[in-house]
């Protein structure tokens, strides 16, 4: 295996997540030697080790971790140290049960797994700072420690919000700081509806266990409040790590499609983002409506390429537009990391198939192509105890190399140079829109993620590299902007978009764009509120379609059937490009355009793809017609062509083996007249 010099990260680098506390101490040195021989350069440790680091209050045991780090250092491995706060030990919880969080059914979430704390708990905040300081004082200047991971997977297992205890007690104060007066709060939430008006701040509780649906504005603000708690919790740790471990990077490992907090806010102050990539489990939980059971079965051993790619692009783009970012960690890569990369079967999905041969290598190559500078495999050796015994590692339980180990050993990293991803198309993503969209979906099968990912899948099927970014960043430099589900559009955001459109940037909007005010209500003059001038239209009707119902659409993009959602418009200056055919919306506008703004009212992958093809082609964005399961990504003047099918494919003049990829020059284009050949989706 070819490896770059670790001091000059010109190519993709690899790592692993290791748990020396899980194995006898005589395994540490042999493991470190084997990791270095495999070509790994980073080892993440100690995120769940609080009970071993501090077995009793104030009594620290550093010797075991000192020795483990020494073993890694002896082999030239660089250590990513963690703050161990995701697993407060039993002695702390039993002494202070008020640390525990409440679920949305009013039940205490007990000790016995992980992430058992309330971000608002002042007692836990104190102990978080104390253990962070202790670990940072011990290892902050250690020559083998090159960076830090804060905590672990914020929000995992539905832990981003507590609906009682310390969080519920702190919520009224947060509201008072935001609104100033109860009159302003009642007005913003529309509390006159159903006689929900408050006359004292102490009357406000969490939006849980209401008789029927809670006020969506109440829910939206509780989500904002909980997100702010996570951001401030992390900021406390980051401040200590900057003080006590200068010159080291600080990151956090975010999660697959995590919705519980605003990642842009929580990422502020980090050097870069990392995330945990488990493609097969992701497919089971997050496939959008268009990916039915047949496609889930087809991709069961690889995951769906666009779901994985979407998360890569989210976390690559997470730092855009943020102020005050540092960049510590000399000799370490600048791009995002995959901190935990699946390298075998997982244990937490409804079904957990063994990945296909070639999947680990394909996932690694795809991560690089979307901007990852480091891929770190979870985990080194499969756990022999507790909740994760069914989860794989690079080594099996008996320490023999597993299938993923062989694929990592076969990688030639010199074909993966670091460098920019040449994305010219922005896809806008906003957590506040996510929260209010999903609180009142109105169509059970259509979520914010489902709608957003459908647009992303259409872009990827056209061979387009995508920059996923916050809707308030500068958009003037993009060839086109796609906003699939930004339902919450304040007036200042609308003004920025209008300015970019006047500058010639084309926008494509999806259903429910600008449906909500910042407080979560409907605009008094209806959708599109402050975007009405840009879109040249008003909402006319919306129709939630149950499974089996469709709504025809006809016009400039052919004849298609929409499912799940259809909304029509009363044009006030816009041009109608497609209309509904049949049903209660018959003849009404389905796709409209006004200047540089195009709005798609119907949920249909074929319609979305047709509109994007026309808009992007007009903007000069090079397009490809990619078949299902074949994807193209570009980075650092290289092109990665991927085949996610379990069978060989011929496309664009290339012979692609099952579950494989090939790296080509950045100027590569598919051979004219060469379409896809091979078995269909159901072929094995």
From TrEMBL:
Is the keyword Isomerase assigned to this protein?
no
> Is rRNA-binding set as a keyword in this record?
no
Which reaction(s) does the protein catalyse, per the Swiss-Prot or TrEMBL entry?
Hydrolysis of terminal non-reducing beta-D-galactose residues in beta-D-galactosides
Broad EC category: hydrolase
Q: What EC number(s) are associated with this protein in UniProt?
A: 3.2.1.23
Q: Which residues form the Beta-galactosidase trimerisation domain?
A: 423-614
In terms of Gene3D superfamilies, this protein maps to: 3.40.50.880, Glycosidases
Which residues are in the Glycoside hydrolase family 42 N-terminal domain?
19-410
Q: Which InterPro entries match?
A: Beta_galactosidase_Trimer, Class_I_gatase-like, GH, Glyco_hydro_42, Glyco_hydro_42_N
Q: Which Pfam families match?
A: Glyco_hydro_42, Glyco_hydro_42M
Keywords attached to this Swiss-Prot or TrEMBL record, sorted alphabetically, are: Glycosidase, Hydrolase, Metal-binding, Zinc
Task: State the family it belongs to.
Answer: Belongs to the glycosyl hydrolase 42 family.
Record's protein name: Beta-galactosidase
Annotated source species? Deinococcus actinosclerus
